[in-house]
User: What shape does this take?
Amino acid sequence: MTPPPNEQAPNEPARASTERPADRLRAKLAERGATGLMAHLVAGFPNRAATIDAARAIEAAGADVLELQFPFSDPLADGPVVLQACQDALDAGTDHAAFLGMLEEITRSIRIPTVVMTYANVPFVRGFASFARELAAAGATGLIVPDLPHTEPEFAEFRAALGDAGLSYVPVVAPTSTPKTIAELAEVADTFLYVVVRLGVTGRASTIDDAVRTRLAEISAITPHPLAAGFGIQSGEQVRSLAGHARLAVVGSKIVTTIREHADAPGPAVESLVRSLVGD
Assistant: This one.
């Protein structure tokens, strides 16, 4: 019997490897030609089984990266769709241990890299080093924390903890970020930068127009790292309109809405949606 992805066969000798979690993410980005997809899920919404079902469907449909959100009671950057999903996940009992269990089961059953997204209070309370080690042990490749500015005194400790655990740090570039700030974020990044394409919160539809593409070109001129573009991307046409400007398009609220509409068995509907986003 073939072992599940990322598992070693029982009688197979141990293989020495120097690969760190972030290396898998870096390799996936390097192999991507046209704009790919980072698909966002809220862990535990509406329950553990649905989250795992949706994650497998996302990979089957051709997404490149999974972004798994640790549900938080006050997700400042998120609109009503993701906010309600976070609350539903918390109400369903998705605590720290449950999240790590879901993360580990997902990363054992899919091959695409998984990046965790959370808010600063979660790793701060847990302890940066402990949190980073737990994520790495559960199979994550990187972490996005949108409300921890790189200028905060705690940031150096946080960044060092990720590096020690082999995790990628993915900075968030805001619409208001200056060239100086972008250059500073590029210095602390090691795989890609997440670019927010408009002001506001997640969920509301965005227009991918010349202004957005110009902004992405300006950021690309500052950083050697590839870009992911997100906030309000909802269609395959929008994803393809980012070609040549962003390595990844990020879709979250559209997927979360689809899961809510097919809560009992979201896999087929999520797979169909993601196929339409990636163009297969």
